[in-house]
TrEMBL record:
GO terms for cellular component: cytoplasm. This is OBSCN protein. InterPro entries: Ig-like_dom (IPR007110), Ig-like_dom_sf (IPR036179), Ig-like_fold (IPR013783), Ig_I-set (IPR013098), Obscurin/Obscurin-like_Reg (IPR052385). It is found in: Cytoplasm. It comes from the Eukaryota. Residues 3-86 form the Ig-like domain. PROSITE patterns: IG_LIKE. It comes from Rostratula benghalensis (greater painted-snipe).
Length: 86
C-alpha cells in the first residue's frame, strides 16, 4: 500500500477581478494515485470549459476561467484526510 501523500505547499488566498482567470496551486509530498478533489464551497469541481485542473508531478493546479461574482467563495483541495483552503 502506498504511503499517504500530504500537502506541503498550501493554497494561497487570491483576489481577482471579474473576467480574469483565478489560479490556485498546491503541492503534495509525493506523486500519488490517491483521489484528489477540488471544491468551490461544497461543490466538487471537474475539468471543463470553465475550470481547468492540471497535475504535473506533485503540483496540482486549478484555473477558474473568466471568474464572475458567483465564483466568489472558498476554494479547497483535498487528498486523503488532508485539506487546504483559500
Amino acid at each position: 500500500k502506498e504511503p499517504e501523500a500530504t500537502i506541503v505547499e498550501k493554497l494561497k488566498d487570491i483576489t481577482s477581478y471579474e473576467g480574469e482567470d483565478a489560479v490556485f496551486e498546491c503541492r503534495l509530498s509525493r506523486e500519488t494515485a490517491q483521489d484528489t478533489q477540488w471544491f468551490l464551497g461544497d461543490v466538487p469541481l471537474q475539468s471543463n470549459e470553465m475550470n481547468e485542473i492540471r497535475v504535473q508531478g506533485t503540483r496540482h493546479t486549478l484555473i477558474l476561467r473568466k471568474v464572475t461574482l458567483e465564483d466568489c467563495g472558498t476554494i479547497s483541495f483535498k487528498v486523503g484526510q488532508h485539506t487546504s483552503a483559500a
